[in-house]
Amino acid sequence: MTFFMQTYRFPEPAAWGPLLARPAAAESPAVAARVQEIFAQVAVSGDDALRQLAQELDKAAVADLRVSAAELAAAGALVPAALQAAIRQAKANIETFHAAQRVVEAPVETQPGVRCWRRSVPVQRVGLYVPGGSAPLFSTLLMLGVPARLAGCPEIVVCTPPQADGTVSPVILFVAQLLGITTVVKAGGAQAVAALALGTASVPAVDKIFGPGNRYVTAAKQLAAARYGVAIDMPAGPSEVLVVADASANPAFVAADLLSQAEHGPDSQVVLLTDSEDILSKVQAEVETQLAALPRRDVAARALAESRAVLLPGPAELLDFSNQYAPEHLILAVAEPEALAAGVTNAGSVFLGHLTPEAVGDYASGTNHTLPTSGFARQYSGVSLDSFVKKITYQRLTAAGVQALAPVVETMAEAEGLHAHARAVALRRESLEQAALAPSAPETAQAPAFDLGALVRPSIRKMQPYSSARDEFEGAAAVMLDANENSFGSVGDRVFNRYPDPQQRAVKAALAPLKDVAAGQIFLGNGSDEPIDLLVRLTCVPGQDSIAVLPPTYGMYEVAANLNDVRVERLPLTADFQLSAATVEQLARSSAKIAFLCSPNNPTGNLLDPAAVAQMLRRFRGLVVVDEAYGDFAGAPSWTTRLAEFPNLVVLQTFSKAWGLAGLRLGVAYASPAIIGYLNKIKPPYNLSENTQQLALAALGRADHLPGLRQQILAGRTWLAAELADLPVVEHVFPSDANFLLVRFRPDATAVYDALRARGIVVRNRTTQPGCAGCLRLTVGTPAENEQLADALRAIGEEHPAAADAGLGALVGNA
After folding, report:
1. Could you give phi then psi for residue 431, rounded to 5 degrees?
2. CB of 630 within 8 A of CB of 657?
3. C-alpha dihedral sign at 265, 266, 269, 274
4. Quick check: 380 and 372 in contact, CB under 8 A?
5. 800 by DSSP, 3-state: which?
6. Is the Cβ–Cβ distance between 184 and 67 less than 8 Å?
7. Sequence-distant (≥ 6) Cβ neighbours of residue 464 within 8 angstroms
8. In what order do the strands lie in the sheet with 329-333?
9. Could you say which residues bind substrate here (predicted)?
10. Interhelix angle for 505-515 vs 690-700, to 10°?
11. How remote is the C-alpha of 124 from its chain's centroid?
12. Can you give the residue ranges of every domain in the chain?
């Protein structure tokens, strides 16, 4: 038997050093020198250097470095349908995994009057390096492009090596088109990294460079970071895998895993660790057998020559060696992988058990395959959604916060000899102590203490509520003759002749622990429209009082006001549909009784900044209603978690959206027991039917089903947003935290709406809403419905290529 891998039996830990080394380490000075030459060449000659190096290193003559729109459009026809379907499924899995990494962090009050928070902002310009060479890695573009899109990076530049004929792999172009990426450059190797760092006529300079590559690409990324101040994801060089196999391992599986990395390139490295002599010999035999059948056997054999098989005494030594090696990929082909995995401290990605090959992570399980190599897993993580965003911290102090924190800061600053720091705090403290700041200044302005009694209409405070028979007598008795029911009525096998519980006690008891609130903080209504209407009735005197809304927003707030003869104050959101400091200040001075906020907003789909909402809750004298009808799709903490902090807060939710129970018409209001008590006082006596209550209880009993429903919607939203992003008729897809997308169409959204309707597809025309000119709102449907919508919009653009000039005027007649 030929031993393709260097084999070591029971080496002492003191002798592990050479076994932990990567094969490229000895050549690093020469690699670094060549990379510096390439950077200098690109800095001087720009595009000409890229063309010259493409000819020299890739044997490719490249005239136009940028992939044209025609090349992108033609790529799909060159990719087999089966491969397209596989790519779409992989994309959906990657989107689902990375979308779950979105976190909206709630502000933290570190001490009274000191509030700190953090916000994620996308990196503005990112460069994605996609290896081409002998094996174009289109999967890398999925792994980098999907999180870049999810993060909202405005500019994405892809560099990939040209093929010998000067073209780019059609599969890479198909993936770029699928992701809506239009800037693709025919440049590979260290020269591509140099172009992304320095910028050329054809390659925009970027803020951060992502992607794996050979030792030259890795050295180029490190040079870009060290000398030119361009961030990188990590040092990601030649691919590597370490397999830990015990006696339970399948030798054929292990050999296949080793070869799957060895075939990447001659500078890849694979390592087998085992405590079984039998496994060691059987894996070596399998490697020899399987290698002979590989199309890339020459490449794999060269990699195996620099790879190792190590026999060690037992699990402790196997784990210790692995952690010191810090592999890019770690496969635990052992009987109890979870137990061993608990001790892993250094690895890029871990694959547990005999049925989990590293190849699934490379392509389609959902995790990212751009991982640290060469031992950098000791310091770096793999690419994630966080890789494409910056975390910006914020803080704001009230007068009380300054007075409490100033002595701490002054003492520490003076101890470090930084007296200007101390003085910056001391000046504010002294100014407050001398009452030099105007009482109305924003830093110290405080709303009067919330007084619910003063907010409620006097007539309602004095009214005697209607008391139904079931309110007076709770429970059941042998003979119930108190409610004038029909004792003989029924519908089929269901009995509805008795009145339902007017206080919905069973539903509230089931809902309360799920939402971590008390039953006395819950009001159940006939849809969320009922509590909206009741809140207006509760607080606003007809013909006298007003509510505040922030359009574009849910229309029922104004409908409820109009029905109750209540004025509406319309205050502006910012251009990106956020709550500005000026608007908060305007609300603080307003005499409105209620301010309605929709977050995620309808029709825009975005969450309102929690810090701005909290400021409004502190300063506004009336009720603040935060409508979270779409909150289950956002992944942000619900405002129900802050009911104790804000006595004027009312949170609205619904069973219509994430629960998939729109036909049930069940809405929920969460608030203080005092506010809930008033709502119960004025509600209709039996506002929820027996059927609604029973179905709600059944749904609450299956609450564990909710995450699955939510994930289906989120995956559909991600897929639809990516499909629409590059369509000719689509100008902009707004980011969404809801189960719909707000999309701006060109040149005439109403004509697109009519053309869709003529094809049997109905969406919502929002063109008349403030800030939504040219926009349609598209609900995320089933996968089949989403595909029908995308196909219809694609057809509208393709059938009318001159639409931008003709104004789409003929679309409806030709649909």
Report:
1. -65, -40
2. yes
3. positive
4. yes
5. coil
6. yes
7. none
8. 6-9, 308-311, 269-274, 240-245, 329-333, 349-352
9. 239, 261, 264, 329, 362, 416, 421
10. 30
11. 17
12. 6-24+238-367, 26-232, 456-486+502-692, 707-814
- Block means of pLDDT (10 residues each) for the chain, 815 residues, are 79 94 70 95 96 92 92 91 94 92 83 88 95 82 95 94 92 94 95 97 96 89 94 87 97 96 89 96 95 92 92 96 96 96 96 96 93 92 94 88 90 94 91 57 51 89 82 73 76 71 90 90 95 96 95 95 94 91 91 96 95 93 96 91 93 91 93 93 90 89 83 93 93 94 92 93 92 94 95 87 46 40
**Is-cis flag, bond preceding 513, omega within 30?**
no
Peptide bond into 542 cis (omega under 30): no
For residues 619 and 596, give the distance between their C-alpha atoms in angstroms, rounded to a whole number.
15
- The CATH number that domain 26-232 falls under is 3.40.50.1980
Residue 683: burial class (beta carbons within 10 Å; 0-12, 13-18, 19+):
buried
Measured from the Cβ of residue 411, the count of other Cβ atoms closer than 10 Å reads 10
Is 490 annotated as contributing to ligand binding?
no
Distance between first and last Cα of the chain: 69
Per-residue DSSP letter, 466? P
The 3-state DSSP class for residue 411 equals helix
Residue 134's pLDDT is what?
A: 62
> Is 191 marked as binding a ligand?
yes
Whole-number pLDDT of residue 495: 66
Annotated ligand binding at 732? The verdict is no
Q: Is 705 annotated as a binding residue?
A: no
Identity at 472, one-letter amino acid code: E
Rounded to whole angstroms, how far apart are CA atoms 214 and 236? 8
- Tokens for 556, please give them: 């029922």
**Contacts of 684 by beta carbon, 8 Å cutoff, 6+ apart:** none
User: Domain 6-24+238-367 - what CATH class?
Assistant: alpha beta
Is 239 labelled as part of a ligand binding site? Answer: yes
Tokens of residue 409, six digits: 């800061």
* DSSP code for 383: P
Geometric angle at alpha carbon 777, from 776 and 782, rounded to 5°: 125
Residue 346 labeled ligand binder: no
**214 annotated ligand binder:** yes
The residues, ordered by sequence, that sit 6+ positions from 640 with a Cβ below 8 Å of its Cβ are: 515, 516, 517, 651, 670
Residue 292: C-alpha distances to residues 242, 260, 626 (Å): 22, 14, 65
| Cα–Cα distances in angstroms (integers) from residue 435 to residues 409, 425, 656, in the given order | 21, 16, 52
389: alpha, beta or left, given left = phi > 0 and alpha = psi -120 to 50? beta
CB 717 within 8 A of CB 780: yes
Strand partners, 243: 272, 331
Beta-bridged to residue 392, according to DSSP, are 119
> What does the alpha-carbon distance between residue 152 and residue 772 come to, in Å, rounded to a whole number?
20
111 has binding-site annotation: no
The amino acid at residue 88 is: R
User: Measured between alpha carbons, how far is 803 from 815 in angstroms, rounded to an integer?
Assistant: 13
What is the Cα–Cα distance from 639 to 670, expressed in whole angstroms? 9
Strands 240-245 and 269-274: parallel
Strands 6-9, 308-311: pairing is parallel
Cβ distance 180 to 76 under 8 Å?
A: no
- Which residues are annotated as catalytic? 328-329
| Side chain identity at residue 58, one-letter code | D
Q: Which residues on neighbouring strands pair with residue 66, listed in sequence order?
A: 185
**Half-sphere exposure (CA, 13 Å, Cβ side) for 506?**
16
What gap in Å lies between CA 178 and CA 276, rounded to an integer? 47
Spatial separation of the C-alpha atoms in residues 571 and 616, rounded to whole Å: 13
Measured over the CA atoms of residue 190, residue 195, residue 196 and residue 198, the dihedral's sign is: positive
Fold equal for 6-24+238-367 and 26-232: yes
Q: Tell me, what's the pLDDT at 441? A: 41
- The answer as to CATH 3.30.160.20 being correct for domain 456-486+502-692 is no
Contact present, 789 and 720 (Cβ < 8 Å): yes
CATH class for domain 707-814?
alpha beta
